[in-house]
């Protein structure tokens, strides 16, 4: 019997699929999720209050010779976590980092564009990141899945906040501060500074700048 899940803040298609043993595409392709699939441009990103239907699990049989070891890989695992680090508009290139996510530790350096890229579990919810060394080392706490869809004003606000262009609340309120942040972002990427949150080019540019 399929179940209906009322999405809570921080949940996404990938983590719901992971928790129930499905691939994200299986969840999205369920007929009862057609509205979610059509309404959300970035299918993995959900909003608090969305309803997702999880289908029945089906048994799958695989032939395998006895007396041998067999390895099976679950589809959809892991997922990629990408983070762009900048300071004063310039990439923080070749910066050493230590990343803790759900007890797993990864170490490395950002690339020439200031990008940190690591494979993580779809169920990851919290993380801790140390950037730099010695007295210049900085610490950041990470929440995964806490940005609303791009076609929600709260999703626009959340991305602008992460990019350092907006200091107000992420509440979906069309405030003057929100409009000013949108105008600043549009100007920074060479778009018409109209302050419209539903502008298609603006949403695409914001997705690209935010990497999601």
TrEMBL record:
Q: Which domain of life is it from?
A: Bacteria
Looking at the record, the residues that make up the Peptidoglycan binding-like domain are 156-199
Question: What InterPro entries does the record tag this protein with?
Answer: Peptidoglycan-bd-like (IPR002477), PGBD-like_sf (IPR036365), PGBDSf (IPR036366)
For this entry, the protein name equals: Peptidoglycan binding-like domain-containing protein
């Amino acid at each position: 019997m399929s179940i209906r899940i009322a999405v809570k803040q921080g949940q996404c298609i990938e983590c719901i699929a992971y928790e129930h043993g499905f691939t994200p595409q299986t969840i999205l392709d369920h007929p009862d999720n057609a509205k979610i699939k059509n309404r959300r441009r970035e299918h993995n990103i959900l909003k608090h209050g969305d309803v997702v239907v999880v289908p029945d699990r089906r048994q799958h049989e695989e032939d395998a010779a006895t007396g041998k070891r067999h390895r099976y890989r679950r589809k959809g695992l892991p997922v990629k976590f990408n983070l762009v680090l900048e300071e004063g508009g310039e990439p923080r290139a070749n910066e050493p980092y230590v990343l803790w996510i759900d007890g797993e530790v990864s170490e490395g350096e950002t690339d020439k564009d200031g990008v940190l890229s690591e494979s993580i579990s779809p169920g990851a919810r919290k993380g801790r990141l140390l950037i730099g060394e010695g007295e210049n080392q900085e610490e950041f706490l990470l929440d995964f899945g806490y940005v609303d869809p791009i076609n929600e004003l709260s999703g626009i606000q959340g991305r602008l906040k992460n990019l350092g262009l907006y200091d107000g609340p992420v509440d979906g309120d069309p405030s003057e501060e929100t409009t000013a942040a949108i105008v600043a972002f549009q100007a920074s990427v060479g778009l018409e500074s109209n302050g419209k949150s539903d502008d298609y080019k603006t949403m695409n540019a914001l997705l690209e700048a935010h990497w999601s």
